[in-house]
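sorry to bug you again but im stuck and you know this stuff better than me. theres a chain ive been looking at and ive put its sequence and its fold in token form underneath. id like you to explain what the token line says about the fold, in plain words if possible. anything you notice is useful, everything is just below.
___
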Amino acid sequence: MCHKAAEFGLDAVRQRIVYSYRLIYGLSEHVIEVVAVIHGSRLISPVQVRLA
């Protein structure tokens, strides 16, 4: 199951937990774009810059 990534404040940005990793991706009408794969112990803040 996938959830909205609340840190980004955007409905189109989702996350999925895969083992110890967070898969962050963006959705549009016909495209899924993987933004980052982050280990669970890392901070999310550097990824937020990629979506700005």
